[in-house]
Amino acid sequence: DSGVTQTPKHLITATGQRVTLRCSPRSGDLSVYWYQQSLDQGLQFLIQYYNGEERAKGNILERFSAQQFPDLHSELNLSSLELGDSALYFCASSVSGGSTDTQYFGPGTRLTVL
Amino acid sequence: KNEVEQSPQNLTAQEGEFITINCSYSVGISALHWLQQHPGGGIVSLFMLSSGKKKHGRLIATINIQEKHSSLHITASHPRDSAVYICAVRGVTSGSARQLTFGSGTQLTVLP
CA B37, B24, B109, B34 torsion: positive or negative? Predict the structure, then answer.
């Protein structure tokens, strides 16, 4: 158990819908990362937050947004869902978000868009 | 060409064999990570390297910065080592390039 929690574990929804994925980092970790793992693209970095502020953005679509709240939990919002958004979404956390931090991964949310 | 290349893509071994998984990268990095993804999907960080060699139990990871290459070795492999092993690098330039870029993974199956 990494100490990072993600909810829900599974999510099945229809095209065009909007969903919210939630992540709680390890106690004491200030930085949260979101990753997408799809069959054709593998693991890809989406976005990083540090202490409530966006720190870096990767291959995140405009239909996706995220935020980190004062209690440090984070939410990833996916809207106007398409079939291709079906994937495993991982959250990870680290102490400071520095380049030599170890990242601790949550169990992931499996999103299926029908 | 992907920034991070892993080989082999698939590896089947007999229990007890010594296993090597390779990772080559093409960019300057601040750190290289080895991750293990279990059949259920969960990801565990095994090592983070910026130079030299690290050992944890039966796992050994090495990195050669000049050759832009890293290897993950498993000694005395066991069926419970069956998983996908993923190499990821963290770049040195600013912004998203400093985030993790992942290899496509090596599916390891260890037979009893």
Answer: negative
